[in-house]
UniProtKB/TrEMBL annotation:
Keywords associated with the record: Signal, Transport
Keyword Signal: yes
Residues spanning the signal sequence: 1-29
GO cellular component terms listed in the entry, alphabetical order: ATP-binding cassette (ABC) transporter complex; cell envelope; periplasmic space
Signal among keywords: yes
GO molecular function, one term: peptide transmembrane transporter activity
SUPFAM superfamilies given in the database record: Periplasmic binding protein-like II (SSF53850)
Organism, scientific name: Parafannyhessea umbonata
Major localization class: other
Domain of life: Bacteria
Protein name as it appears in the record: Peptide/nickel transport system substrate-binding protein
Family classification: Belongs to the bacterial solute-binding protein 5 family.
Length: 543
């Protein structure tokens, strides 16, 4: 354990005798080796600690939020979801809207945007980036969010080599044409799966793109060094298209162990990191940390997934009884350290379509017993499989609640990979997990999981034509108020009429940041550094 008084400079000097120290020392030198700017003022250097996703920084190939935290400082998409969950222009001059046909979308790039290598962004780079996404050899993981572009599915199948539905008019104008209406396609242009890459640099890097220093974007910060193992160092991009970035450098330090990461924070070796829910109560009682904790609401939900193909779960009275048996307020305190909100539906409060007037799910074990008796069910036995160390505590708590109404739940743990395959194959009668949409829109949350065709691959098998019709209408409705109302109706059917799934709580997450870290804010899971700044006048900021 390092002593709290050990400075960053002293730590690097002491660790230089080790191989890891040598690497850290060389990376510091690569960034200029000085903690002072040319005018003598302290450099603004942010040190962020996170686990190593080991998936690289090419977000066509990764879906990991840790990869996103780094990649989103380097690359940009046509639009941007802010930390206030608002969609704004980024590379585009304005947010485009579909023509009356619902499938034609004209886009215009800002002029003169530079990549980190000095080349200028053009519409050809946009076309290249999307076509790369659909080439089978790329292995992109989130093509389903964009495969309504004409020709996308043909490219994925290997029967076409270019996107029919993405045409370039000139350097700054291009047009998407979809196979059928999908209003949320515009929203999908605001996430990092739609990052735009420089054609020449990306092609030159080949399979190495997204690793090492083969990461060139238009973002506020550019890569100085990256060993893909211990640390990624960024520095501000002086030619950024939307003003001068606030920070001089960002150091993403990889620390996989939760306890080591928090000790690094206490010791001053990092300035900012997430705080796992399992550690919340411990550090709420730590006088050195408690005032530096910030909690925020996510867009997600933690829930018990019910496999509706199971004969034991066919009767809605049984499903409602299972919900009534759970004391959610108690569970939030015991399992999540209080970091959650008792739910009233599937959609989180910040998501359009959340019903503010709906009551939280009732806790009434006596009513649960009566419903089981009414359904003619006794000595019900259910089986659950859950990922080891992930959501396991939730199911153990649920196991106890259900036991009190006469329902026996056996809980087994599985390796992550085995569980994922069982989940996709529909082999899980009961499981628990969290589902977090990428932005504040119910399509990515409800259609993706519970639309009948999608529910088959998530051990749910939910199939209600009325629900399907509502979420399908919402996919093409351009009036946002009408869309929200459609989702409100769909949520009511899903969770308060059919009890097709059992929401446990809307989770809160939390992070810790030193008092000199300004504008630290998380909209939904991913730590973006776009607005973060450093107050160099604070006495505890060493630079």
């Amino acid at each position: 354990m390092m002593e709290k008084s050990l400075s960053r400079r002293s730590f690097l000097k002491a660790s230089a005798v080790t191989a890891g120290g040598a690497a850290a020392s060389s990376m510091l030198a690569a960034c200029g080796g000085s903690d002072a700017s040319a005018d003598g003022s302290k450099k603004k250097i942010l040190k962020f600690g996170q686990a190593n996703a080991k998936q690289g920084l090419d977000m066509q190939k990764s879906t990991n939020s840790g990869s996103s935290s780094i990649a989103d400082s380097i690359f940009e998409a046509p639009l941007l979801w802010t930390e206030d969950n608002e969609l704004v222009p980024c590379l585009l001059k304005e947010i485009p809207t579909f023509e009356a046909d619902g499938v034609t979308l004209h886009c215009e790039l800002k002029e003169g945007i530079k990549f980190h290598d000095g080349s200028t962004l053009t519409a050809d780079d946009v076309k290249y980036s999307f076509e790369r996404m659909f080439k089978p050899e790329t292995g992109a993981k989130s093509t389903y969010m964009y495969d309504k572009i004409k020709g996308a599915k043909e490219m994925l199948a290997g029967t076409a080599t270019e996107l029919e539905g993405l045409t370039v008019e000139d350097d700054t104008h291009f047009t998407f044409v979809l196979t059928d209406p999908m209003i949320t396609f515009v929203n999908n242009l605001g996430i990092d799966y739609a990052d735009i890459f420089p054609k020449d640099a990306c092609e030159k890097a080949g399979d190495a793109w997204g690793t090492g220093t083969n990461v060139i974007g238009t973002g506020k910060y550019k890569v100085v060094s990256n060993d893909d193992t211990t640390e990624v160092v960024l520095e501000k991009f002086e030619d950024y298209h939307d003003g001068t970035p606030a920070l001089d450098e960002i150091h993403f330090t990889f620390i996989d162990d939760l306890n080591t990461k928090m000790m690094s924070f206490k010791n001053g070796d990092i300035d900012y990191c997430d705080l796992d829910a399992s550690q919340l109560q411990q550090y709420q009682g730590d006088p050195d940390v408690k005032d530096l904790i910030t909690q925020y609401q996510t867009l997600g939900v933690q829930f018990v997934n019910l496999n509706l193909s199971s004969e034991k779960l066919q009767d809605v009275r049984v499903r409602k009884a299972l919900s009534l048996a759970i004391n959610r307020d108690e569970l939030i305190q015991s399992i999540a350290g209080g970091a959650g909100i008792a739910p009233s539906g599937w959609l989180a409060p910040q998501t359009p379509g959340h019903d503010d007037s709906a009551p939280t799910f009732e806790y009434d074990p006596e009513k649960a017993k009566a419903l089981l008796a009414e359904a003619g069910v006794s000595n019900l036995e259910l089986s659950a499989k859950v990922r080891a160390n992930i959501n396991q505590k939730q199911l153990v708590a649920v196991q106890d609640y259900w036991d009190k109404i006469g329902v026996k739940l056996t809980v087994e743990t599985e390796d992550n990979g085995v569980w994922a395959q069982d989940w996709a194959d529909g082999n899980l009668e009961i499981t628990a997990l969290g589902w977090f949409p990428l932005y504040a829109d119910a399509d990515n949350h409800m259609y993706t999981y519970f639309y009948s065709e999608n529910a088959k691959a998530k051990s749910s098998f939910y199939n209600n034509p009325e629900f399907d019709d509502l979420v399908s209408q919402a996919r093409i409705e351009q009036d946002q108020d009408k869309r929200a109302d459609l989702y409100k109706q769909a949520d009511d059917i899903l969770t308060r009429q059919d009890y097709a799934t059992i929401p446990l709580y809307y989770p809160k997450n939390q992070f810790v940041a030193k008092d000199y870290v300004k504008n630290a804010k998380v909209g939904n899971l991913v730590y973006h550094m776009n607005d973060v700044d450093i107050d160099t006048t604070k006495e505890d900021y060493a630079g």
